[in-house]
Amino acid sequence: MHEIFINYRTRGGKEVAYMCDRELSARFGADSVFLARKSIDPGSRFKGALVQAARRSRVLLAVIDDQWLAAPDRQEPGRRALDNPQDWVRREIEEALSSGALVIPLFVGRHVEQLDPHSLPKTIEELAECQYARLDLHSMDADLAQLGDRLVQQVPGLAALDRAARPDATAEPVQDATVRTDRQGGGIGQVGGSVGTFVNEAHAPLHTGSGNQYDGPHISGDGTNYIAGDNQGGIRQRFGSRLPHEGDEK
After folding, report:
1. Cβ neighbours of residue 22 under 8 Å, at least 6 residues apart?
2. 169 burial class (0-12, 13-18, 19+ CB within 10 angstroms)?
3. How far, CA to CA in Å, does 159 sit from each of 20, 33, 151, 156, 240?
4. Where in 109-235 does DSSP place strands (E)?
5. Residue 220: CA atoms inside 13 Å, Cβ hemisphere, count?
6. Which of 40, 69, 73, 250 gives 81 a disulfide partner, CB atoms 3.0 to 4.6 angstroms apart?
7. What is the pLDDT of residues 14-62, one digit of tens each?
């Protein structure tokens, strides 16, 4: 079942309808968006396909430009297309409204004004009460992205199809990582696995490799040890196995 049905009039709305199909198909999948020229297979009875798709879709987007309301009927140029009960734009909207689908008028450009229910046929006058969204040709990508975000919030079925919400599949996952933190603030965090060792707000010298660690200059040699740094308890030196006595050679 198609989640989104794009309703448009060929004269005036085709270009925007194709843009909507391209962007929304990229986000929710091509099978989730119905566009007559794309979605009806060759040889299929298009009348039945249109009615069925409009009736079963959860969202109908009605593309409305500044000529939509007064567009002439091709069969009878002296009257509006909307006044013809067989007008496909009208019939698709009727099916969506009667099925309880979310119907969104898409106003193209800045000159399209809020619809007046008295200017619409009785069967679709409810369209004037539906909150519209506006698409501007100068910001079409951003407007369609915002429309997609709102559809995800309003239609739960679209959230599961939303490719924009999926994490980057090319990112390499961290495996077998165990994190330990120093609860006394700052300190060292050890991460096991392929990550390594990280340091979080260290306030003292750190040692993350092997071997001895010295917090200051260190000199070692035969019988001599020297340590520089804060000494709060004295330094003890050992020569061999005993302390030196007075008279020993130095």
Report:
1. none
2. exposed
3. 18, 14, 8, 5, 76
4. 133-135, 178-180, 188-192, 196-199, 218-221, 224-227
5. 3
6. 73
7. 999 999 999 999 999 999 999 988 998 888 888 889 999 999 999 999 9
- Residue 137 sits at φ, ψ, to 5 deg, of -60, -25
Q: Which residue has the tokens 């004037």?
A: 128
pTM for this model (two decimals): 0.66
Domain ranges across the chain: 4-165, 178-207+214-227
CA distance 107 to 114: 9
Which residues contact residue 10 at a Cβ distance below 8 angstroms, ignoring those fewer than 6 apart? none
> Strands 218-221 and 224-227, how do they pair?
antiparallel
Of 127, 106, 114, the closest CA to residue 20 belongs to 106
Instruction: Give the tens place of pLDDT for each residue, 192-235.
Output: 444 444 444 455 555 555 555 555 555 455 554 444 455 454 44
CATH classification of 4-165, choosing from 3.30.360.10, 3.40.50.300, 3.40.50.450, 3.10.129.10? 3.40.50.450
Single-letter amino acid code for the residue at 81 = A
